[in-house]
Structures are given as structure tokens and as C-alpha cells.
Design brief:
Blueprint lengths: L19 H15 L32 E5 L2 E5 L7 E3 L12 H5 L4 E2 L14 E5 L5 E5 L2 E2 L21 E3 L9 H5 L10 E6 L2 E6 L6 E3 L12 H5 L4 E2 L13 E5 L5 E5 L2 E2 L21 E4 L5 E3 L2 E2 L16
Antiparallel strand pairs: 1-2, 3-8, 4-6, 5-6, 6-7, 9-10, 11-16, 12-14, 13-14, 14-15, 16-17, 17-18
Length: about 325
Amino acid sequence: MPYQLGTHNKPGRISRRRTAAASLFAGALFLAACGSDPAPLVAPADASGDAAAAQPAESSRSLPAATVGSSELGDILVGEGGLTLYGFTNDVDAISVCNDACADAWPPLIVDEDWSVAPGLDLGIFATTTRDDGQLQLVAGKWPLYFFAGDASAGDINGQGSGDVWFAVDTGGILITDDAAAAPAEAPTTGLVSTGSTEAGDVLVDANGLSLYGFTPDEAGAPTCGGACADAWPPVTLPSADLPSDLDPEIFSVVEGIDGGFQLKAGKWPLYRFAGDAAPGDINGQGSGDNWFLASPEGGLIQDGNAAAETSDTDEGEADNGY
């Protein structure tokens, strides 16, 4: 499936929580793999001399390519054998630039066309990208996923922060950096929305200028994105069922949230943010999983550059646009 997410801000420096030996190994291995003068790779002493061999070359059809694992960083994405998956901040527009010697140190998570992820993960944040050699690599959020040759066992995070460009990936497809750790677990919620400009045209945005989205499985008017899905796509919540007085009741309404509380709607679409958007104008969630689309100021969704003006739950008969 084609990858549709963009990329923007690069995460900052993190504080490492590794042993001195692991730190020296990860730094040396990064320079060897991605520097201008690569040196031979040496497996760590505790990897039984065969750390690289422990990394799967490709995913199995019988197992999900990615699942949830526990680490000292919290819940993260892991691959076969529970090995940590990482993202590379130099990968722009979800295109992998880690090849050859770099890929020896950071083996990509290769999948086939029948790839899947574990239950509990939001399928909508995953996609694939085609590598230079024609193989498909799994992408979470906007990050192609890799193993690290220095990790030997489930829970190892020896690659975390390597070169200040390699970071473990959380279950919402976000790199785990100091900035991410310092951010609130959920985006601030507000009932106030306005119109903002993006490369896709005018869209609904929240009080912080972040783009708002609708989820096509919500076409009946009730939210269906909760749990892990809501970690990646935080709902726009309200403190009560009362619609703020500055919002047009012909476009906006309030619905009970799937995880409790109340969620703002535009037209028939409950509204969400995308955790992969960091600044006003970002539209990294547009088209994700062929289910997530920007919300238009008229209360519809922007698909293929067109906005459907669906302004209420009751006009679905005349506003059926193939959702």
C-alpha cells in the first residue's frame, strides 16, 4: 500500500539510560554503519557473538510484524522475538535512507504484502515503504522501522539515542525522545475550533492550530476509535454535553465518547487530532490507513482533494459520498 504520511520536526537529544559498555558499543556501531569511514562491526560480549544473526531478515506470514513490548521506556513497538523497533530521524517522508553498512547495523523490518500487526495496535498508523532493493519495509506513523544489531534479547534498548538520530517507537508511531517524554500523555483538549490553512486547503483546527480529522468507520455518527487507537488519534473532548456558544450548531454537535466523556463532532464526524502532527499546518495523518481524513470547515471530510459538505447526522441520504 502506498505510504501517505509526511514528516516534519526532528526530535531532540535524549538522556541515555544504558551502561557505559552499551553506550560505547552503540556509538561505535552507529559510526561504523552510517559514518563516512565505516569500520568492521563487533558484536557485544553478552550477545553470544551472534547479535546480528538474532535479527530476523523478514517477517513471518504466521506472526504479526509488530506488537507491543515492555521496556524501561514504557510500552514500545517490538518485532519478532520481542526485539525493539527503532525509527531513524534522517528518514524523510517515510523513505528509508539506511542501506548497505547502515542496514547491517540497523536491519529493516521487512514484510510481505500480507503483513499484519498485533491486536490492540491501531492498524491505521501502519503502512509500508519500498526500499532501494524493492523490498517492503513496515512504517509506523511516519517512521520506517528497524531492529538494532546490538540488541540480543526482548527488552534491550541498546540502540536508544544512538547518534542522536535513532529512537525506539511507541505504540502510537511516535519516536521516544526527551521531548516526547516531557510532553503530556494526551494533547490538551478544548471545545474551540477554527479554520486553518494547509497544503490540502482550509481545514478545521484546534485552539493550538493542529489539524483535525475524521475516521470513516465513524460514519454512523458515533466514535469508534478508543484505547490504543485513541493514543494515536486523541479525540477532541469537551467537559460537558453542552456545545460551546461560539460554535455553529448547524455544523457542530456533541456525542458521548467511546471511552467516556464527550467528544466534539463536525457534521456527522467525531473529531480527532493526530499524535504525529507537531505544528500548525501539519497534515501527517491525512489518508492514513485509507480511513483518516482532514475535517473540512463545512463538516465533511477532505478526500482526494475534495471536501464533502456533510453538516448533520440527518442529511446522510443526500450527502453519501462513498464513505
